[in-house]
Amino acid sequence: MSYLLTATCAVPAAGAVLTAALPGGTTEARRRTAKLTAMAVSTATLALAALVAVRYEPGGARYQLAESYSWIRSFGISFSLGVDGIGAVLVLLTAVLVPIVMLASWHDAEPIQNPDGTFENLRRTQGFFALVLAVEAMVVVSFLATDVFVFYVFFEAMLIPMYFLIGGFGDRAGGPDASAQRSYAAVKFLLYNLLGGLVMLAAVIGLYVIASGQGLATFDLPTLTDAIADGKLVIDPTAEKALFLGFFFAFAVKAPLWPLHTWLPNAMGEATAGTAVLITAVVDKVGTFAMLRFCLGLFPEASTTFGPVILVLALIGIVYGALLAVGQKDIKRLVAYASISHFGFIIMGIFAFTTQAQSGATLYMVNHGISTAAWMLVAGFLISRRGSRLISDFGGVQKVAPVLAGTFLIGGLATLSLPGLAPFVSEFLVLVGTFTKYPVIGIIATLGIVLAALYALLLYQRTMTGPVKPQIEGMPDLKVRELAVVAPLVALTILLGVYPKPLTDLVNPTVDATQSQVHQHDPAPAHPVAATTGGEHK
């Protein structure tokens, strides 16, 4: 048995413990040691994640590199791991973003110095980087877990380090009441997601009771899905709908889907830019990923029954999020509402039940993570220079910091899905795949593209162009560390925009398997291509 998946989960977990255990202090040398330790651990995790992606065989079994360790025998619970194509790309996305977030947040968690020269929170730096590694470990386990109970445990556990990252390491440009706002945002994030998790726990228990009543006292996902497909596990239609809603509610809160989204603008607005990236580009992807793996796999009939309703909710989220983004005065809240709109596209692609739409939704998870990370991190650099998140406090930045302005523009253009940049491919596939089955929803959803162009370009125009405001004069351009943060994100945005094949090769077999689980097939073309024989049209 290979131990690669266990190592990919264990390395960041052990790194979190090691980083937290390092001695705190006021000296830069000690803080630098904590930072370098965490960065080394995240780099090692990236190497392991890349190895997982390389060793995954698209034409092979659904779950590969499988590992299983008995945990609670009496309830059939095992610490079971396995990777499919979608899990492989999302683990890789997580492993790519975490070291970038750490580099971007290099000075975001320094100890607090009092006016008398004394310091508070001497372990602040160690705490921040340890929490980031803890989040990474729990997210990776969630993407790899093939035991329903294990997934639930880590799905909930990741809320704890995220709570402390939001509430304890907030944005320094938040104003005089920043501490109270951070506490409010952190508590709101925790309560919303805990409520979703409690509902899911009831559904997990219900699934176990039904399965054990039919001789399958297990939480093993492949065993349960195979039994459902073979008719060995029969769930009453009413019970299946109730269980589906229990799982889906938790995932819709995490994603987030309208109208369960209201925690996200608060959390992203009050968190540091790096933490905001962890929220929307890493943690929230667990929700959409779980919809594919658990909702569609365990409850195929209920998924198709509720599909049209979920499509309408996703459509509302697309338009609603984009409209609110247009009217925002706060840069980070604008990015948050833009993300709500984008998550609407992802969920729409999942529940359109076409291979194009689901493949596009999976790519969208990756491409949104990369492009939003670029946009938010550059926005964070901009905000830290000015000390304000308000759009009205900026103007003429491109004249004093052209590289910063240029990278900010690329992030904005990726967000509006400009052709040639990564999000365009995924958004195009989602819209085309949805249109073939639900043309009205596909047409209305294109309004999200128009509104995205509006909020992204208006933000650039109001902050980067025009006369240079007095407070902007002398603003420094991106430094070497900041360029090292942005460069790989820009490169990936362009590379995956012109050559997405490596990702599609990984995810398409898993998408096909998911389509088979829910007994869905792509609609026949309205105008089939004429059959040909020997090069001549018949």
TrEMBL record:
Keyword Membrane: yes
InterPro entries documented for this protein: NADH_Q_OxRdtase_chainM/4, NADH_UbQ_OxRdtase, ND/Mrp_TM
GO molecular function, one term: ubiquinone binding
Pfam families: Proton_antipo_M
GO terms for biological process, alphabetical: ATP synthesis coupled electron transport; electron transport coupled proton transport
Places the protein is found: Endomembrane system; Membrane
Full protein name: NADH-quinone oxidoreductase subunit M
Species in which this protein is naturally found: Kitasatospora sp. CMC57
